[in-house]
Every structure is written in structure tokens, then in C-alpha cells.
DNA sequence: ATGCCTAATGCAATTAGA
């Protein structure tokens, strides 16, 4: 079973790229971020024509997350992170699909730092850590997938020294990421490719993709029972070279089917 | 320090992204 995350940077502006990639890669479950469209403008029909049902949590202009599936019903668990009823930004959606709890998230960017946006990022991260702890304690197979807006280590940045003061690489943000991992989550891509520079984002400026001036900020974190099923993980980086493409590339994991002998 | 690019909104220029 292939599960992916993809920050599309505008689902309607990038729809042809999204559909082409889905048709080519045929992932089973996909978490999308940055829909940048109101709920009523979610392109349900073209996705359904490709065999995907969808659940989305969007808002006008900014943010917006969705879960797509072609392997069975999407059972919504929650939309929005608990812990702040005043938070109106559509950045979190959680559903049960094919026996797995899928948490799709779009962590705040946080720039400029310092400032209110950075404070919001840190508070949002704290809420994620608290909620992820309850998911971990549940014992269910869980995957936290999305745009975390964090490069965990120097290896995840083309030029780390230039990013030290940035909200995506600040010490307190990386510390929050590792505090989350310490609950028992496995960073799927890094666990299978230790020591390898792999990026998921290249900005539109300065010919960044051609220079491979990238960042690794999109992550798939697996609970222990899913880590045992992890076969492969990768980035479909060629999608970043397409016309009208997002500044992110899709990231995916391949999981072994549940063993009947063990159940 | 800022622009470089791109999208959404809405029809010009601003906000936001990372």
C-alpha cells in the first residue's frame, strides 16, 4: 500500500499536475496541503473520475488539507487540532482509511522570526505534540503526514548555514520536531535513507530546482506497527520539473499488507 | 537587506509562501 503526501500549492491551479501524477504513481492514500480554495471549490469530480474519494478541510485563499483514497472509505475522525477553538486556519484533518489512522497536517511556516507568526507556529507544534501523544497511546497504526515546515537536520538543507535564523530551521522548531519523534514515531524517508541528502521542496526563485537547492520539509511519520511494515520510501522529484508545478514534490511510503498470520 | 517566482483575490497591488 502506497501512502503519499503532497503540498500542491493551490489545488485548482495545479490540478492538471496533480491528476497526471496520480495517474502515473497510483498512490492508494494521499494527504494534500495548501489547497488554497474554499470548500465549495474542491475539485471532487475529476478526482472521483480517477477513482479517488476525498475528504477535505479548506478555506478561502490559504491553507487547506485533504485526504484522498482509492482503497476504501474515508472515515473522518476530526478536522482541526484540539487545544485552541479560536484557531480558524485549516491545517489538520484526521481519518481512518484501510485500517490506518491518517493524520494530514500543514504546519505553519512561522516566518518572520521572531514575531506573532513564529509564536503561532510554536503553539501549533505544541498542540500537535499533545495530540500525537494520544494517537501514539491509542496503539492504532497511525501515520502523521504532511508539510511540517521543518528541516530536521543539516542534511535536510542544501546550505544549512544560511537557514539558521529561519523559522523552518530554528533550534526551537527542530527541538519540537525531535520531541515529537521521541514519542516513538519513525521518519520513514530518513530511516530507509540515512546519510542521504533528499529534498522535497525547491523554491521558485533563483532556478533552485535546477541547482538542487532544496529542503526536506514534507514528512511521513509512522507509528511502531507501521514501521514494521515499511518497505520503501521516496520522493517523486521529477514532478517538480513539470509545467505549472508546485514548489513541493510528492513524498511516499510503501507499506507491506497486514500479515494474516500475525492477526 | 531585498528581489528573484507563483497563487489568490479580483482587476492593481497586496499578502503569503519558505
Quick rundown:
The protein is α+β, with helices and mostly antiparallel strands and 263 residues long.
What does this 3D model show about the protein?
With 263 residues, the chain is of the alpha+beta class. Strands 3-4-2-1-14-13 form a six-stranded mixed beta sheet. A six-stranded mixed beta sheet has the order 5-6-7-8-12-9. A two-stranded antiparallel sheet has the order 10-11. A hairpin with a 2-residue loop joins strand 6 (92-97) and strand 7 (100-106). It is globular, with a radius of gyration of 17 Å. The chain is built from seven helices and 14 strands. The chain binds one DNA strand of 18 nucleotides through residues 9-10, 12-14, 34, 36-37, 60-62, 109-111, 149, 163, 166-168, 201, 203-208, 215, 217, 246-247.
Which helices and strands appear, and what pairs or packs with what?
Elements: E1 2-7, H1 15-25, E2 29-33, H2 44-49, E3 53-57, E4 65-69, E5 75-79, E6 92-97, E7 100-106, H3 116-138, E8 142-147, H4 171-181, E9 186-187, H5 188-192, E10 201-202, H6 208-211, E11 214-215, E12 218-222, H7 224-227, E13 230-235, E14 251-255
Parallel strand pairs: 1-2, 7-8
Antiparallel strand pairs: 1-14, 2-4, 3-4, 5-6, 6-7, 8-12, 9-12, 10-11, 13-14
Helix pairs in contact: 3-4
This protein binds one DNA strand of 18 nucleotides through loops.
Amino acid at each position: 500500500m502506497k501512502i503519499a503526501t503532497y503540498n500542491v500549492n493551490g489545488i485548482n491551479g495545479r490540478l492538471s499536475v496533480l491528476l497526471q501524477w496520480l495517474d502515473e504513481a497510483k498512490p492508494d492514500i494521499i494527504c494534500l496541503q495548501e489547497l488554497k480554495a474554499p470548500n465549495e471549490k474542491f475539485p471532487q469530480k475529476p478526482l472521483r473520475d480517477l477513482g479517488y474519494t476525498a475528504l477535505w478541510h479548506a478555506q478561502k485563499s490559504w491553507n487547506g488539507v485533504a485526504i484522498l483514497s482509492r482503497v476504501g472509505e474515508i472515515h473522518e475522525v476530526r478536522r482541526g487540532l484540539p487545544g485552541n477553538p479560536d484557531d480558524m486556519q485549516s491545517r489538520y484533518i484526521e481519518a481512518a482509511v484501510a485500517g490506518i489512522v491518517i493524520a494530514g497536517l500543514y504546519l505553519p511556516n512561522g516566518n518572520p522570526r521572531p514575531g506573532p507568526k513564529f509564536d503561532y507556529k510554536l503553539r501549533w507544534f505544541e498542540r500537535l505534540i499533545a495530540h500525537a501523544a494520544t494517537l501514539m497511546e491509542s496503539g492504532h497504526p497511525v501515520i502523521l503526514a504532511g508539510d511540517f515546515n521543518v528541516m530536521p537536520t543539516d542534511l535536510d538543507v542544501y546550505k544549512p548555514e544560511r537557514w539558521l535564523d529561519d523559522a523552518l530551521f530554528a533550534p526551537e522548531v527542530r527541538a519540537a520536531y525531535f520531541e515529537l519523534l521521541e514519542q516513538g514515531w519513525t521518519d520513514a524517508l530518513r530511516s530507509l535513507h540515512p546519510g542521504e541528502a533528499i529534498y522535497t521542496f525547491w523554491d521558485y526563485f533563483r532556478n533552485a530546482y535546477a541547482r538542487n537547492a532544496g529542503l526536506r520539509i514534507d514528512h511521513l511519520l509512522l507509528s511502531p506497527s507501521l514501521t514494521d511494515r515499511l518497505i520503501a520510501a521516496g520522493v517523486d522529484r521529477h514532478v517538480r520539473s513539470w509545467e505549472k508545478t508546485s514548489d513541493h514534490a510528492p513524498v511516499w511510503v510503501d507499506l507491506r499488507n497486514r500479515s494474516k498470520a500475525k492477526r
